[in-house]
Design goal:
Elements (H helix, E strand, L loop, with lengths): L3 H7 L2 H16 L3 E5 L1 H8 L6 E6 L2 H10 L4 E5 L4 E5 L4 E6 L1 E4 L8 E4 L2 H6 L9 E3 L8 E2 L4 H6 L2 E2 L6 H4 L2 H13 L2 E2 L1 H9 L9 H11 L5 H10 L3 H4 L7 H13 L5 H9 L5 H10 L4 H16 L10 H8 L4 H10 L3 H12 L10 H6 L6 H15 L6 H13 L12
Parallel strand pairs: 2-5, 10-11
Antiparallel strand pairs: 1-2, 1-8, 3-4, 4-5, 6-7, 8-9
Helix pairs in contact: 2-4, 8-10, 8-11, 11-13, 13-14, 14-18, 16-18, 17-19, 18-19, 21-22
Bound molecules: adenosine-5'-triphosphate and magnesium ion (MG).
Adenosine-5'-triphosphate binds next to helix 8.
Length: 423
């Protein structure tokens, strides 16, 4: 089957020219280049995907170096892996040396040697991801499909390429569910059996790799479908005995999407995922997935704030009280609790902090207070705190108001302890 016409229609002109240029350079070095993986699958499905992966029969790094010399691409090469990234103004292209992989034991990283296109396809996760399109001049556009990927796409099936696939690399279990839910496909019968059989091998996968797959799941349009399905299949308890995929998650994920800028979404999803966890549960989870220090802080804060939410469920709270209740928490944790809480009052108070209170500053600064005769040190700290509270509570609005208040405090010879913050 030849897809030359489809490629020409599918790829943006600029990208098409880059790809053809690379293929031309490759021919000069006696190498062949192919489009592989996701882009081939999505081209056949008619979904846009301009994250191009190219496989080179031969040294991809050498080829990428040559391309970078003759164009304005920036090169990022990994000699050890035989891979290279070419970064252009509007696109990046990934080039990889065709490779052959063998697994010494489940969960181990594979041993890699250079190979043919076919070797490179057989090491892949599913038939629908194991297709290539030739970019060489003599058979440009020819589909290479040794594992009936196209037929599986038509029958809407996720199929592994061999019976040891999941036990070789159990991250494929997570990937299988991600594609199943993204495309609304089904597991081919034997694949479904193998997936069930090999669930325990998930224990052989490092925290970094599991976390990476969760991050990919969190980039999906509706990750809650994937999480629910992982629950149904019994995958979640293997990652953590406290993980649940349920209606609560689905509702809150949906709420998160409608609230938040997309850049923070994956972190929000992570925090929502552990919202029902105990303290020990979360520590286990953080360690198992090797979660970064920053996200760990937000996740711990999420649970700490959750236990303090009743304090925010009071209508009489002044803005300054809300401020002091919340100022110690990571904004992400506050956002998560705003999504998770079913009390509209709590929600309102948390949002008020996030959108307004945390940005409130006094108009007068230390220098100006000094000029009013207030000495640096504890006295000034106290005055600033009173001014800040008054500003939060709307008792002062202008700089003149603040001056007046500061002078009245000075007249009082103000050095009693300020009110303790509400805990
Ligand atoms: P998408 O990015 O749309 O989810 P993709 O196919 O581009 O899909 P990537 O995660 O970018 O997926 O991986 C690129 C290709 O590498 C896949 O198409 C697949 O063939 C292969 N691949 C990725 N991870 C694995 C794995 N764990 N085992 C085998 N092959 C894999
Ligand atoms: Mg991809």
């Amino acid at each position: 089957m030849n897809l030359a016409r489809q490629i020409e229609q599918y790829l943006p002109r600029q990208l098409l020219e880059l790809v053809k240029d690379i293929s031309g350079q490759a021919a000069k070095q006696g190498k062949r280049v192919y489009l592989v993986g996701g882009v081939v699958r999505d081209l056949l499905l008619g979904y846009p995907n301009f994250d191009l992966d190219l496989v080179v029969e031969g040294d991809a790094v050498k080829l990428a170096q040559r391309v970078a010399e003759t164009s304005r691409a920036k090169l990022l090469a990994h000699h050890r892996f035989g891979t290279a990234k070419l970064r252009y103004e509007n696109f990046t292209l990934d080039l990889a040396t065709a490779r052959k992989e063998t697994y010494a034991k489940p969960g181990a990283l594979p041993t890699v040697t250079p190979g043919t296109l076919k070797d490179d396809l057989v090491r892949r996760d599913f038939s629908i991801n194991a297709m290539a399109i030739s970019l060489a001049a003599n058979d440009y556009g020819e589909l290479v499909d040794p594992y009936q990927g196209k037929s599986d796409l038509e029958h809407r099936l996720i199929r592994v390429l061999h019976t040891g696939s999941f036990s070789d690399d159990a991250t494929r279990i997570l990937r299988a569910v991600r594609y199943e839910q993204r495309f609304g496909f089904e597991f081919e019968a034997q694949t479904a059996q193998l997936l069930k059989r090999d669930l325990p091998t998930l224990d052989t996968i490092s925290g970094d790799r599991i976390r990476h797959e969760l991050e990919l799941i969190f980039k999906e349009k509706q990750p809650e479908f994937v999480i629910n399905r992982l629950g149904e299949l019994g995958v979640l308890p293997i990652i953590s005995p406290f993980l649940k995929g349920d209606g609560w998650i689905a509702e809150k994920f949906d709420r998160a999407r409608r609230l938040k800028k997309p850049t923070q979404l994956p972190s929000l999803y992570f925090c929502l995922l552990i919202y029902s966890f105990s303290k020990t549960g979360i520590e286990q989870f953080l360690a198992r997935l090797n979660i970064s220090a920053k996200l760990s802080r937000a996740m711990r804060d999420t649970l700490r704030l959750k236990t303090n939410l009743p304090l925010l469920d009071r209508p009489s709270l002044k803005p300054s009280e809300i401020y002091y209740l919340l100022r110690e928490y990571e904004p992400l944790a506050i956002q998560v609790n705003a999504i998770a809480s079913d009390s509209s009052m709590v929600h309102h108070h948390l949002q008020l902090f996030l959108t307004e209170l945390r940005y409130v500053r006094t108009s007068l600064n230390g220098e100006e207070l000094k000029r009013l005769g207030i000495s640096a040190g504890p006295e000034m700290g106290q005055v600033l705190q009173v001014l800040h509270k008054a500003k939060l509570d709307g008792e002062v609005r202008t700089k003149a108001d603040e001056k007046k208040l500061a002078l009245s405090l000075k007249a009082l010879d103000f050095h009693t302890d300020p009110e303790p913050p509400v805990e």
